From TrEMBL, chain A:
Keyword Methyltransferase: no
Protein name: Sn-glycerol-3-phosphate transport system permease protein UgpE
Compartments (UniProt record): Cell membrane
Topology within the bilayer: Multi-pass membrane protein
CDD domains (UniProt xref): TM_PBP2
Keywords, alphabetical: Cell membrane, Membrane, Transmembrane, Transmembrane helix, Transport
Family per record: Belongs to the binding-protein-dependent transport system permease family.
Primary location recorded for the protein, binned into one broad class: membrane
Biological source species: Deinococcus seoulensis
């Protein structure tokens, strides 16, 4: 139980107060959880309400219906946006995993002139606010007229995230802790440098790759500012942008909005439930090694 | 690791160290080539371009982009919308960062004292963090709706008159901040749980022997040893609050920054200027100011918050 995943803070507990104290703590935690989860419950329950009972204030729907869901799926481009998000977030994540590992590995395990300078330059990009970059990106994308065709539009959404400085930093930390002699042994056996990286080093940092991958995917799945700016044609919208603009186009149809929100949340929550351990490991590592 | 020390002795004698080093350098730059190009084109060049654009009256719809020197910056000093956005952004940061740290630490301390269901509680608190902001913002609008929101229903039970929340110029910012704190809380909790776990248990045992109260132990052991986690939280939290955009846009149907601009942030103002009015030169000047603010605040925070304790 002392692993990083399940941190156990050592707070002194007076044995005499234990029972009452523990009960109070559970009560406090439970109230907190109810407050935290209330918005989810409200969203889900409202999405099941038919039009006529939408605005009555009962918590539970009197006559639950899936009408809102069928309308979202058939009368909006929800599935197209969903697919766009999946494609964009998926490719970005693969790219980040590959390139961030390659750069992190090189900075950790090779000795060459300029190494520290390169690392510092990459790290310094973390301080540049996205807002500052977005305007020049937009001007560049407009000049190249990227967003009208299929590969161009997707590339335009993805390109800013294809390599992340934060991931480079994270992967470098992990590769540093890898024993160099293992890599030397492979080198002596005549393995090529890329082979050593890909087949020896990469499998050894799988936990780091998992948490970096999940964070990158979530970040891109939920990305809003740049996709909102760069996409002009509705068929290239990602899920957050599509659903955000959906309100204006559909009028304020709260039932549909709540159904769309529920549909957008559910896959993320499933991913979270499956990869909870890696997600939390990722935070722990970033917070402590930072 | 034991493998390390054993094979360190078995390492073959260095053959032509110079050529090996040259080989390493070549491979390193081969591996780094494409990524370095990426950072150059996607990060550094746009930064320089933004600096340059801020000196021009740059409008993407016009043919000519006249050079105006520092005029954009001079204009900023008298721009009430910008100054208002700057004030709001500061308010968000001053409300949000301490609130999420205090709540996160409180829940983490409580979670640290229970064993049953801890994983489940942690997961439930974390759920908002992975929720798409757009979805969360919609639910928030509904929850805090003056006419049919459950929060006002709840207030009526407590005999408190219904509030205007997001539609009131004085309450909209606080309600927006509440959404962001709600979203970030789970992340803070996990961070603090990890930080607390790293504090050696012997310190508390020693304090107990010396007769220290729980509060004394918290003040003289927990807080100081939690400093690295705290610094990370404050610095990254501040940076993210200074760039607030998505929540603010989505909590208002119009992207005008809430009732009377009361929730408007610097990032939203940049968006309006650049992509609503296409005043990209002027918007770039705002981004440069934001950049300088972030840089200064980060440096100051790192300097004054970081403490070294010998363990």
């Amino acid at each position: 139980m002392t692993s990083l995943t399940d941190p156990q803070p050592h707070v002194p507990t007076g044995p005499r107060r234990m029972n009452v104290g523990t009960a109070l703590i559970y009560a406090g935690l439970t109230v907190g959880v109810i407050v935290t989860l209330f918005p989810f419950a409200w969203m889900l329950l409202t999405s099941l309400k038919g039009f006529q009972e939408l605005f009555n204030l009962s918590f539970l729907p009197q006559q639950p219906t899936l009408d809102n869901y069928s309308q979202v799926l058939t009368q909006t481009k929800f599935l197209v946006w969903f697919g766009n998000s999946l494609l964009v977030a998926g490719i970005t994540t693969l790219s980040v995993l590959f390139f961030d590992s390659l750069v992190g590995y090189t900075l950790a395990k090779f000795d060459f002139p300029g190494k520290n300078l390169i690392f510092l330059l990459i790290l310094s990009t973390l301080m540049i606010p996205t807002e500052m970059l977005v305007i020049p990106w937009f001007v560049g994308v407009s000049d190249l007229q990227l967003t009208r065709s299929v590969p161009g539009a997707y590339f335009a959404i993805m390109f800013p995230g294809l390599i992340s400085a934060f991931g480079v930093f994270l992967m470098r930390q992990f590769f540093e802790s890898l024993p160099t002699d293992l890599l030397e042994a492979a080198r002596i056996d005549g393995m090529g440098e890329f082979g050593i990286f890909w087949r020896i080093a990469m499998p050894l940092v799988r936990p780091a790759l998992a948490s970096l991958g999940i964070f990158t995917f979530l970040g891109n799945w939920n990305a809003f500012l740049w996709p909102l700016i760069v996409i002009q044609q509705p068929q290239f919208r990602t899920l957050p942008v599509g659903t955000a603009l959906f309100n204006g186009e559909a009028g304020t149809q709260w039932g549909l909005i709540m159904a769309a929100s529920s549909l957008a949340v559910i896959p993320v929550l499933i991913v979270f439930a499956i990869f909870q351990k890696q997600i939390i490991d990722g935070i722990v590592l970033t917070g402590l090694k930072g | 690791m034991s493998i390390t020390s054993k094979s360190a002795q078995a390492r073959p004698p260095r053959r032509a160290a110079g050529s090996m080093k040259r080989q390493q350098t070549r491979t390193a730059y081969l591996f780094l080539g494409l990524p370095l190009l990426f950072f150059l084109i996607v990060r550094f060049l746009p930064t320089l371009m933004a600096l340059r654009m801020s000196l021009f009256d740059w409008n993407i719809l016009k043919e000519v982009q006249p050079f105006v020197g520092l005029e954009n910056y001079a204009r900023l000093a008298q721009d009430d919308r910008f100054l208002g956005a700057l004030k709001n952004t500061a308010l968000y940061t001053v409300i949000g960062v301490p609130a999420q740290i205090a709540l996160g630490l409180a829940v983490a301390l409580m979670l640290g004292r229970v064993t049953v269901l801890r994983g489940l509680y942690r997961a439930l608190y974390f759920a908002p963090y992975v929720t798409p902001i757009v979805a969360a913002a919609w639910v928030w609008q509904w929850l805090f709706s003056p006419q049919f929101g459950p929060v006002n229903t709840f207030l009526t039970w407590l005999h408190i008159p219904p509030q205007a929340f997001l539609t009131s110029p004085s309450q909209a910012l606080g309600t927006t901040a509440a959404l962001i704190v709600w979203q970030n809380l789970g992340f803070q909790i996990v961070l603090f749980l990890a930080g607390l776990a790293a504090i050696p248990r012997t310190f508390y045992e020693a304090a107990e022997i010396d007769g220290a109260t729980g509060l004394q132990a918290f003040r003289s052991i927990t807080l100081p040893l939690l400093n690295p986690t705290m610094v990370f939280s404050v610095v990254t939290g501040t940076i993210s609050y200074l760039q607030l955009f998505t929540q603010v846009v989505n909590l208002n149907f119009t992207d005008q920054g809430g009732p009377l601009g009361s929730t408007m942030t610097v990032a939203l103002y940049i968006y309006q200027l650049a992509f609503g009015r296409f005043q990209m030169g002027y918007a770039s000047a705002v981004t440069v100011v934001l950049f300088v603010i972030i840089l200064l605040i980060t440096v100051i925070q790192l300097k004054f918050l970081t403490r070294r304790y010998d363990v």
